[in-house]
Structure formats: C-alpha cells, structure tokens
Amino acid sequence: MVVKKAQAMIMPNWPAAMSRELALAYTGVAQCQLREWERSGAIIFLPIGPRGQKIALRSALDCALDAMFERYDQSIDFDFG
C-alpha cells in the first residue's frame, strides 16, 4: 500500500500500529531517519500485521519524534524577520 502525502494529511485517526509507509507519512521523517531509529532500537517493526506485514507502534514513533526534538535547544530563535 502506497500512502500519498495528501491522503495522509486528511487521515483523522492514525492507527495504533503502522507499516513503514504509514510511519513515514505519520512522522514526516526521511527513510534514513526511520532506519536509524530501527538501528538504535527506538522503533521496532514486527511481522504481526496482515499477511505478516511489519508494523510499529504509533506510541514508539511519537517517543522517537519527541526525543529527536528534545535534542534541539528550544531557546534558538528561528525568526528570520
């Protein structure tokens, strides 16, 4: 299943577990970032979806995103005006 960005943007309720394609649409990160989260163990895709499709928990994706943004200094002013 290929999820187009426009389709993902209007999805009102994200599922509790997602395929790689949905996880990329949900988080908005690049594939290399998703792979890095897998290598570090922050995200685990398990083959428990339909027909053995690998899925990861939405809560794990949320935690990985939170950790990624916590690394940046929130006091930096990005207002270029």
Report on this structure.
There is one protein chain. The chain has 81 residues and is mostly helical. The chain has one domain (14-70). The chain is 44% helix and 5% strand. It contains four helices and two strands; from the N terminus they run H-E-H-H-E-H. The chain has helices spanning 5-9, 20-27, 31-40, 58-70, and strands at residues 17-18, 56-57. It has a two-stranded antiparallel sheet with strand order 1-2. The longest helix has 13 residues, at 58-70.
Radius of gyration of CA atoms, rounded to a whole number: 14 Å
Distance between the termini: 42 Å
Count of DSSP-assigned helices: 4
Number of structural domains = 1
Identify the strand order in the major beta sheet.
1-2
Mean pLDDT: 85
The proportion of residues in beta strands is under 5%
Helical content class: 40-55%
Give the low-pLDDT segments: none
Shape: elongated
Which class do the helix and strand fractions yield? mainly alpha
The helix/strand order is HEHHEH
Could you describe the largest sheet, including whether it forms a barrel?
A: 2 strands, antiparallel
